[in-house]
Design goal:
- By secondary structure, the chain is mostly beta strands.
- It has four domains: 49 residues; 103 residues, Immunoglobulins (Immunoglobulin-like, Sandwich); 110 residues, Immunoglobulins (Immunoglobulin-like, Sandwich); 32 residues, no CATH class.
- It has a six-stranded mixed β-sheet, with no helix packed on it.
- Strand 10 and strand 11 form a beta hairpin.
- It is rod-shaped, with a radius of gyration of 44 Å.
- The C terminus is likely disordered.
């Protein structure tokens, strides 16, 4: 600004102050000053009094919770007897609550609410894992645990993550030389007993296959001698073979093949002295040919009479 403009501005200010002073002397002190007193001399002046009032603070709503998984459902497969975890990872939970429920037909069964477990089945527990995993733990899973589970978040609208649990029950079978399941095998004395156990439907292959004769464990038995166990692990199971050399009548009895404590099957082994085991196991006669002779315990094996019995003279 030029000096002349400064002089003009100062003169206006002095004139304004003089006017205000005169009004104050008259007793109206508060109203003497204009509300926009200092803004009248601003250059340029573009604001009004209403625009200068302090704006009310704006509140930003909390972000909505969401599941970490890209899709809101998953399938979980576990082995019978194992411990399984159903995961539910929630971001931006804030003050919302996570619940686990099980759906059976049209009914919902509450399992957990927050960190508390409400199921009467003690195998079910809530295992929270930082930072955001509200996982449901099920111990000793069995076929009854199969089905639909829901992880629910108490937002508006509610969020639901669906889990379908499948429990696979292993299959343990004792088979003969033709690969067919059998419940009895016959051997001559001084022959070698060979039992084949086929284990299938095992999502997590395990070499923990045990053999028992009655209640006696055979895997590490050194008292008898001539016993060996060979187990081959397969992608979804195993094949285990038990060998017992130089069989005698004391080896007769029930033999059990077990997959840990999960599943097992039993076969009856007969060690015969002087009989023909092949005739017992693979005889070609039908059940209609069996003769009612009660003096021999092996009469009805495979529907054939015992070797050496002449039915025509009976």
């Amino acid at each position: 600004m030029t000096p002349s403009m400064w002089l003009l501005l100062i003169g206006c200010v002095l004139l304004k102050v003089n006017c205000v002073t005169q009004r104050a002397i008259s007793g109206d002190t508060f109203d003497a000053f204009s509300k926009n007193f200092w803004y009248e001399f601003s250059s340029p002046f573009t604001e009004t009094y209403d625009e200068l009032t302090e704006a009310e603070p704006k509140t930003t709503p909390d972000p909505q919770p969401f599941f970490e998984e890209h899709i809101n459902s998953t399938n979980v497969t576990t082995q019978f007897g194992s411990t399984v975890h159903l995961h539910c990872r929630v971001n931006h939970l804030h003050d919302r609550t996570v619940s686990w429920v099980r759906r059976k037909d049209d009914a919902l069964q509450l399992i957990t609410f927050g960190l508390h477990t409400y199921s009467s089945d003690t195998r079910y527990t809530l295992e929270y894992q930082r930072p955001n995993d509200w996982r449901l733990q099920i111990q000793f899973a069995n076929e009854r645990d199969q089905g639909h589970y829901e992880c629910q978040v108490s937002s508006h609208p509610p969020l639901v993550f669906y889990v379908l649990l499948n429990v696979v029950v292993p299959r343990v079978e004792l088979v003969d030389e033709r690969g067919q399941t059998t419940s009895d095998k016959f051997y001559k004395t001084r022959s070698t007993i060979e039992l084949k156990c086929v284990i299938s439907r095992v999502p997590q292959p395990s070499s923990y296959v045990t053999w028992k004769h009655g209640q006696r464990m055979l895997n590490y038995d050194t008292s008898r001698g001539g016993i060996s166990v060979k187990t081959n692990i397969l992608p979804e199971g195993a094949i285990s073979r038990l060998y017992i050399a130089n069989a005698n009548e004391a080896d007769t009895g029930n033999y059990t093949c077990s997959l840990a404590e999960i599943a097992s099957t039993t076969i009856a082994v007969h060690v015969l002295n002087g009989e023909n085991p092949a005739a017992m196991q693979h005889g070609g006669c039908s059940t209609s040919d069996a003769a009612p002779i009660t003096s021999n315990p092996f009469l009805f094996v495979c529907g054939c009479p015992p070797l050496g019995v002449d039915l025509t003279t009976a």
